[in-house]
């Protein structure tokens, strides 16, 4: 029995050691990937607030407002598979502090545990769509199922509160990543409407195309959700919730690995 346990631990350590270093970020959802050693990475996100619509008079939404975000991800070399993150987005001046621990990194299955705290630094106020200036936390368990060039992801999530709810809720985001070539990837994410929200709220979607180089990840995306954090995209009610079908807005992510 001891020999079997030792062999299992050795296999797990070997799998983690062989795992490619990567920022655990899809479009908005976390993935079960992770930075190895003490590797740092910068992430820059940008979301346009105006829908692209069907004409170019407003430059497909580029003439409207936007919400940029900037974050630092860092592998913690002292604990294999542990990553730390600090991220700040202009959406309600939200600051996110997070820790993510990779639990399993096999060739076909990856698993991680993530805990984060979010603080909206704007003055607390209540509007028709809900409250801003809120503070809360999120617990997530990103799971990646890998089949060749295709990865299917599930992100079970507990949120301590959302824009319209002071009590916690449980939900789960879904994503897929299809690596077309070594340098190109298609991505998609689905954000269901939490069961505790009224049926008047929409479901959320995001689709993206990513270009990968040795040190950069550039992703162009379209989405009907405005935010980028767990409580913004999975809460289902942030800023009134996802836009109705057809109301797609542009955005992009830029990640720099060092």
UniProtKB/TrEMBL annotation:
**Record bears the keyword Signal:** yes
Signal peptide from the UniProt entry: 1-17
Domain of life, source organism: Bacteria
DUF5777 domain: residues covered: 150-258
Which keywords does UniProt give here? Answer: Signal
Task: Please name the InterPro entries in this protein's record.
Answer: DUF5777 (IPR045916)
The reply to whether Signal figures as a keyword in the UniProt entry is: yes
Q: Name the chain's protein.
A: DUF5777 domain-containing protein
| The organism of origin for this protein | Geothrix rubra
């Amino acid at each position: 029995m001891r020999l079997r346990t030792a062999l299992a631990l050795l296999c797990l350590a070997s799998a983690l050691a062989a795992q490619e270093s990567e920022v655990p970020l899809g479009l908005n959802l976390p993935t079960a990937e992770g930075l190895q050693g003490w590797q740092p990475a910068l992430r820059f996100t940008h979301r346009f607030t105006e829908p692209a619509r069907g004409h170019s008079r407003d430059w497909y939404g580029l003439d409207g407002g936007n919400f940029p975000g900037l974050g630092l991800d860092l592998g913690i070399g002292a604990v294999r598979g542990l990553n730390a993150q600090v991220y700040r987005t202009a959406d309600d001046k939200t600051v996110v502090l997070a820790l993510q621990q990779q639990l399993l990194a096999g060739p076909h299955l990856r698993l991680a545990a993530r805990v984060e705290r979010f603080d909206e630094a704007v003055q607390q106020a209540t509007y028709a769509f809900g409250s801003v200036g809120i503070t809360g936390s999120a617990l997530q368990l990103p799971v990646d199922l890998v089949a060749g060039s295709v990865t299917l992801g599930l992100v079970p999530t507990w949120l301590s509160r959302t824009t319209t709810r002071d009590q916690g809720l449980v939900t789960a985001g879904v994503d897929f990543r299809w690596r077309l070539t070594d340098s190109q990837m298609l991505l998609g994410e689905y954000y269901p409407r939490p069961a505790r929200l009224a049926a008047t709220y929409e479901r959320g979607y995001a689709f993206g195309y990513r270009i990968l180089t040795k040190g950069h990840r550039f992703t162009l995306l379209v989405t009907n959700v405005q935010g980028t954090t767990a409580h913004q995209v999975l809460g289902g009610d942030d800023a009134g919730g996802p836009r109705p079908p057809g109301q797609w807005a542009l955005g992009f992510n830029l990640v720099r690995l060092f």
